[in-house]
Amino acid sequence: MTDNRTGKTYEVPIEDGNVIRAAALREIKESAEDFGLMSYDPALVNTASCRSRVTFIDGDKGILRYRGYPIEQLAEKSNYLETAYLIVKGELPDRKHFAAWEQNIKIHTMVHESIKSFMDGFRYDAHPMGMLLGTVGAMSTFYPDAKNIFDLESRRLQTRRLIGKMPTVAAWAFRHSRGLPYVYPDNDLSYTGNFLSMLFKMTEIQYKPNPVLERALDILFILHADHEQNCSANAMRAVGSSHPDPYCATAAAIAALYGPLHGGANEAAIRMLMEIGSKDKIPAMIKDVKAGERLLQGFGHRIYKNYDPRAKILKKMAAEVFEVTGRNPLIDIAVELERIALEDEYFIKRKLYPNVDFYSGIIYQAMGFPMEMFPVLFAIPRTSGWLAQWAEMVRDPEQKIARPRQIYTGEVVRNWIPVNDRPAPTMREDAVSEAI
Ligand code: ACO
Fold first, then answer.
1. Helix crossing, 80-89 with 152-178: angle to 10°?
2. pLDDT tens digits for 81-127?
3. Residue 289 alpha carbon to ligand 1 centre in Å
């Protein structure tokens, strides 16, 4: 690299095929006292923040693999608990290890009775994602042993606890919002079957999940289990990097997932489809999107510049679910919207394709889930991904507390003025709220 300010040249090694270490830029200085160069990358669009062996994505080709296994094979042949084992432990389990893992997860499906009282304290109309976020954060206080994050056995225990308890807390958040009594776990059922039981059981002795819906939910869980360095995984790693217990870091990841640009996108997509209402209104919506007035929800992705492979699987799965639940009429609008968008120059030029959220909401809605539950349904399986990312971060000797640099753009230095001598404050464009 040549520094045009000084004419000096520097050798910056290229590692891993296309990577330079940002810290190497610090050697490039105008003078000895100089700070050195740094890179500016708002939203980290071109910065690798870690090495990871969990998930591979080729966004241009539309490829997603967990630990090397293509998502299509896992969605067709695996189940969520097996996939969670693969993600957390790196290998597929044999029969014996799967049985032990399933047992280890199931014995952690119960939660402390005080967590039940804690959840009871939320307002009657609390958003279930807010309840999940608060409750998982509160779980930190129930497991003080979880602070031993450098102890392998402790990490394994918290991983089993979190994967086991997440459906219980999620289902209870839903029951709370409906004013229904909480249903205790039934470990004779599968992971997803038990979740459906805790959601929908009424007065029957044992809830019998519909096998098609149980399998559909299991596939949805597989598809959502991890997605490398997305916003919530990055939150998990960033918060985890100051070494709190994994419940705190998971609560941070849930908070990141809550936003409409991440886990809230399928709700936004459903609302948009409902607003469109009929196929003849699609061109008007496309016009608004192209005018930059709004986003086409469930379209576009930071990494995929091709069809999201998860959306492909879900589009096909929708038909099977509808055979049981009845057809969600929004699917017709979605398919037509996709057809029109994919033929339009605006979307072609920007490589905007449907993402996982475009079809998942339609399926969840057909299965009877209210929209507020959509991000909660995302958080349950993503817990295995977050924990795998967190464990990698904890064990990585290159990682430190996450602490980016900034380019300071504020006042250089000002002298404090006694209150009686100050002019009235003026409104600044960077103020959070108006000066009073
Ligand atoms: N509708 C219309 N235009 C879009 C959309 C969209 N959904 N997404 C991106 N674009 C446009 C941008 O306006 C921009 O156009 P420009 O070059 O003329 O300015 C161009 O495409 C590039 O977009 P960026 O904003 O740079 O893409 P980025 O990688 O920052 O954003 C994101 C990715 C947040 C997913 C974005 O596509 C979006 O907001 N989509 C809608 C929300 C959504 O579906 N989120 C779910 C993501 S998947 C998940 O979390 C599971």
1. 140
2. 999 999 999 999 999 999 999 999 999 999 999 999 999 999 999 99
3. 11
Nearest to 376 by CA among 177, 234, 169: 169
Residue 404 near residue 251, CB atoms below 8 Å: no
Q: What is the pLDDT of residues 365-386, one digit of tens each?
A: 999 999 999 999 999 999 999 9
d(CA 330, CA 359) in angstroms, rounded, equals: 10
Q: Which two tokens stand for residue 405?
A: 């640099």
Q: Which residues pair with 65 in a beta bridge?
A: 56, 70
Ligand 1 pocket test target in 352, 362, 364, 378 with most atoms within 8 Å of CB: 352
- List beta partners, residue 299: 354
- Who's near 3: CB < 8 A, 6+ residues apart? 9, 10, 28, 30
The values of phi and psi at residue 70, to 5°, are: -60, 140
Q: Are 245 and 158 in contact (CB under 8 A)?
A: yes
List of residues 6+ apart from 53 with CB closer than 8 A: 67, 90, 392
How far does residue 299's CA lie from ligand 1's centre (Å)?
Answer: 7
159 with 88: CB under 8 angstroms? yes
Strand-pair partners of 225 = none
The residue among 339, 344, 340, 317 whose CA lies nearest residue 328 is 317
R_g of the chain, CA atoms, integer Å: 24
Catalytic residue among 108, 176, 301, 308: 301
Handedness of CA 410, 413, 416, 420 (dihedral sign): negative
**Catalytic residue status for 108:** no
Structure tokens at 402: 């996450």
